[in-house]
Amino acid sequence: MGLISFLSTLPTLLPVAPLPSYSSSRCPIHSGTISCKIDDAGSHEINGVRRRDVLNCFGAAVSMELVASSSPISSPFIEAANAADLIQRRQRSDFQSSIKMTLYKAIKANPELISPLLTLALNDSMTYDKPTKTGGPNGSIRFSSEIERPENKGLSGALSMVEEAKKEIDSYSKGGPISYSDLIQLAAQSAVKSTFLASAIRKCGGNEEKGNLLYSAYGSNGQWGLFDRNFGRSDAQEPDPEGRVPNWATASVQEMKDKFIAIGLGPRQLAVMSAFLGPDQLATEAKLATDPDVVKWVEKYQRSRETVSETDYEVDLITALTKMSGLGQNINYEAYSYAVPKIDFKKLKL
């Protein structure tokens, strides 16, 4: 829900009946609509409307547009629109925070599912077909006929965790059940964050308190804004077509590159998402490093992971995941919002 545009309220200018004499055209404004009243005198008329009056009325509309967007004194209906938008944003943000806490607890209890959760999100997204704009991160991987495909071997445990988390999340949601497509991508985000935090703890000699402080001070939490905003995907109602996702365990590096390029990514994103391609990141990177297009990126991110902040690695991974998690999706930015019950102050006992 955005600001109301005054330009969209311009009426069609048609000939009007003669009016009492005015020294100039007038554009009175009523309830946010610009109505142009034009005198019948003057030259350069088209269908009874002077060119100067058309320009004057258009100028008034532009002026009102600028006032609405920049003036600190907003009109009541703009204030109401903004207030409603802020309420929806707060509802979605609060709901997302609760989801992340649920996922954090589930992942902490099942750390062995971190790698499968990453691959689950990757494979759900990799069904995207750019020419037809079909597939993508739409939750289709939840269907038994898709999760049982060879490329998804070993991911059923991750899907089961997502399903259990969904039951809990739906139980406290006020804006309807969460989509599988949203939840699978949010689970991947939580898994990625857990790897970032684990790395910080390792650099602090296994001290969790110091590791948390290190990640808070130097970590990449502030880079997730766009990912979090893309919240409101719709679920597919049937499995995506077969043959769109490589089997990462057996695919050649060239096949991996071809798939990443086909969906609008490339060797750089392939390298930074190595943890998504299998349970052994170092083994995957050793394989990727045999390709001349990928090796420089593999080495770049390996060096970055040795630094205190891991900035290059973390920021590029977040950017790649954000792009991947939105492939082919029309985001409903009002999803999970809900009507706030009105309070009847007359019934309140003070």
Verbal overview:
With 350 residues, this protein is mainly alpha-helical. It folds into two domains: 7-73, no CATH class; 92-324, Peroxidase, domain 1. It is built from 13 helices and four strands. Strands 1-2 form a two-stranded antiparallel ribbon. Strands 3-4 form a two-stranded antiparallel ribbon. Strand 3 (45-46) and strand 4 form a beta hairpin. Helix 2 (76-109) crosses helix 5 (156-172), helix 6 (180-203) crosses helix 7 and helix 12 (295-305) packs across helix 13. The chain is globular.
Structure summarized in a few sentences:
The protein is mainly alpha-helical.
Strand and helix map with partners:
Blueprint: E1 29-30, E2 33-34, E3 45-46, E4 49-50, H1 51-70, H2 76-109, H3 114-125, H4 144-147, H5 156-172, H6 180-203, H7 208-218, H8 225-229, H9 253-262, H10 267-272, H11 281-288, H12 295-305, H13 311-324
Antiparallel strand pairs: 1-2, 3-4
Helix pairs in contact: 2-5, 2-6, 3-5, 3-6, 5-6, 6-7, 12-13
